Structure formats: C-alpha cells, structure tokens
Amino acid sequence: MKLLLTGAGGLLGSAVIEAAAARGDACHPLARPALDGGASAAAQLAQRMLGHDLLLHAAANTNVEQCETDPDACYRDNLLLTELLAQAAALAGVRMLFVSSTGLYGSASDAPYREYDAVAPTTHHHRGKLLAEQAVLAAAPHNLVVRTGWLFGGAPATPKNFVARRIDEARKALAEGRHLESNAEQRGVPCWNRDIAMRMLDLAAAGVTGVVNCVNSGNASRYEYVAAIVKAAGIAIEVQPSTAAGFNRKARVSNNEMADNWKMRALGWPEMPDWRASLQTYLCTELADY
User: Which residue from 28, 33, 97, 120 has the highest number of Cβ atoms inside 10 Å of its Cβ?
Assistant: First the structure.
C-alpha cells in the first residue's frame, strides 16, 4: 500500500511508520492542513492525496482534560479537521482509516463493549471522536474507523509515555519512602502501539470497512495496569488502590473503557496479543536501557 499519515510524530503515528516499513508499504507524513479554505481547501488537499491507497488519520487532540475547558479547540482539532480530510479523501477516491477511542462507548455497561453496543460519550473529547467517526463513515462506504484503548509505547523521553512516567514516579516514591496510588475503579485495555499499528494496516489492506474495535487481549483497572508496570520494571514498591474521585478530574471519563474485538473475531481475524505479554516485550526492547 501507499499511504498518507497524519500525526506521524505521535505515539501511534510513529508506530505506523515502523509497521509500514516492516510490511513494505510506502508511508508519507501529511502535514496538518489549514481549515479556513472552504471547498477549495478540500479540493487542493485531494490533489495531494492522488496516487495513494489510504489516508490514515492518527492526529488528534488527546488532552481530555483540556478539551473540557476549551471545547472549541477540541472540536476544531478532532471534528473539523477530520471532516476536511474525509471530504478530500472522498474527492481523491482514497480510502480513509480514522483512529478513534473505546472511551466513547460511555458508562451504560460494566462489560467490555462490542461494536454493536450503543455509544454515549461522557466527555467533549469522546463526543468529538464520535462526530468525527460519523463524518468519516458518511464520506465514503469503504472507510474504516478503528476504536482503540489505552495506548502505550514509544521512546522513554516522550512526555506522554505512560509506562516510562509511571516508572519515573515509582523510582521517585521509592527513594522518598512512599507508596504509589492508582485508580482501581476505571477499567480499560492497555494497548501496545506496535500491535495496534500493525493490525490497523492489515485491516486496511484487507478492505475491512465500518467500525472495528482494535485492542490488545485482556483488560485491567488503572491500578492493575500500574502495578503490572512497576512489577515488570523490577521496582520493589507498593501500589495501593484508590478511587476515581481522588484524582479530581475535570472530564467525566467513563469508568468502563473496556472493549472486545468482536467484529475481528467474527470475521476470522486472529486474537490480538495479551496486553501483559506486550508490556513485557516493550519493557525488554524499547525500554531495556531505561
């Protein structure tokens, strides 16, 4: 495949570049286009897309807390930009893969969500993602939306590297004689960026369309996730469970962001690797010297 990629410098985008190279796909970064050009902007952008097989839109405003205090910026970044890209891709006849979030399912269930479950986002970030999904799917019938979970991976110096930052916190707390606390109420699926990137490209190459959950196997609370990170990193510190209320978040994030890869399984796709195994592999490879 020959693909264009937004968010090439991000956590998932960087993994897509690696996965594309491993598959023998050509991957070209696409800089963020201006939003003030109207129909002419979409037409000009479509010209830049000609000759490509896929537009993979991984760029996003992922600051869930800031999205609550500045919703205009949230919907500009996550909805309007996606609408423009979807319009341009449709004009160019290029398939589009949009990266979304399992967090948009909401709080109606305590079980892992499947693609046919109703969605009821509880934050501006997730509502923006849902509206963007609808725009992408309405633009062309061959488009694909991938809902993924709690991404981890990348270089340790990356500020939003969840695993590396928890290791930093654990080392600091150990040196100060403290314990760590983590939310035992919210559950989701830790997802290695490399696993998700490779499966997304496989799904696109196979022509899968519509909405697809794409998460690693298994699930965990934030507390279980942090405890697993600390243990796998070999740091002898206690991690204690806490409540969601203790973190004083602005965003009313659902306590259930778990998802089940029902559609992939129904279509005969192999199971995704277990998140604990992928976490261990990540720690032994990209974080081996950290």
Answer: 97
